[in-house]
Amino acid sequence: MNRTGLIVALVVATAVGVPLALFPQLDLAVSALFYAVSDGQHNMFAWRLSPLVQTLRNLGLWASGALLVPAIAAVLVKLVLPRRKMLISGRAALFLIATMALGPGLLANVVLKDHWGRPRPIDVTQFGGDQHFVAWWDPRGDCPANCSFVSGDVTGAFWTLAPATLAPPPWRPLAYAAALAFGVAMSVLRIMAGAHFLTDTVFAGVFTFLLIWLTHGLIFRWPRTRLSADTVERARAPPAPRAGLGGGLGRQPQPRR
Fold first, then answer.
1. Half-sphere exposure of residue 160: CA atoms within 13 angstroms, side-chain side
2. Which residues contact 56 (CB under 8 A, 6 or more apart)?
3. What stretch of H or E contains 3?
4. Which residues are 16's β-sheet partners?
5. Res 253 pLDDT > 60
6. CA distance 164 to 160
7. C-beta of residue 87 within 8 angstroms of C-beta of residue 74
8. Which residue, 28, 155, 180, 188, is most buried by CB atoms nearer than 10 A?
9. Distance between CA 242 and CA 228 in Å, rounded?
10. DSSP β-bridge partners for residue 124
11. What is the dihedral of CA 230, 231, 232, 237, to 10 degrees?
12. Whole-number Å distance between alpha carbons of 157 and 186
């Protein structure tokens, strides 16, 4: 999580966001490639009905959730057994839980998807729906809730960049590559299904990376905010008894005669 990653994310956002803001029909053109796929019942965007595509999507959702399980388990065990050392680093557990809650949880599924009224491809008039198409930057679409911008599934897939940052240094480049490939694969699945436009998935990845980059800086990198290795451990562990305050450690009172 260095400045190079931040620069790359901003370049991607600019390279995709600016042209598709100026020429939003490019978003339609990409989705049109998959709208043309039909099945025997003449359903368009037929990949959305494919058992294989549905299975791959579900596996992707489970994979993201599985990577969060150790962090949640570590916190729960610490709450029940406060004197026991956490199963994983307290900072790591806080980082994983916070980025999942703030990214796929709050930013994607609460702030944007329910308040940014961009319709999904399958719902716009160009592809047989009844809602008017809007560019990625325009929140004034007809969608009432659970809208297209940004993709929640893709946000969850790109969240795997968070555990990738915690991989041992020799394995970290491979972990980053796997997380990026996972996010791109989920993006393709959702575009194929007519559930999201290209820009919905690109900005899902960019926003998720920026949030992970910021949170990682606050917890691990920046001197004024970073937590020490045992800060989270001490937050829950009860204080050790001080000498002289019970437990037979201090001077025992003498009985009166």
1. 26
2. 185, 189
3. helix 3-22
4. none
5. no
6. 6
7. yes
8. 155
9. 23
10. 131
11. 80
12. 7
**DSSP label at 241?**
P
User: How is the chain split into domains, by residue range?
Assistant: 3-236
- Gyration radius (Cα) of the chain, Å: 24
Instruction: Note the pLDDT tens digit of each residue in 192-238.
Output: 999 999 999 999 999 999 999 999 999 999 989 988 877 777 765 56
SS3 69: helix
Q: Are 153 and 53 in contact (CB under 8 A)?
A: no
Q: Are 229 and 14 in contact (CB under 8 A)?
A: no
Residue with tokens 């990682």: 216
Asked if residues 127 and 44 have their Cβ atoms less than 8 Å apart, the reply is yes
What number of residues does the chain have?
Answer: 257
Is the Cβ–Cβ distance between 49 and 39 less than 8 Å?
A: yes
52: amino acid identity, one letter: L
Q: DSSP string covering 137-180, please?
A: T---SS--SS-SSS-HHHHHHHTTHHHHHTS-GGGHHHHHHHHH
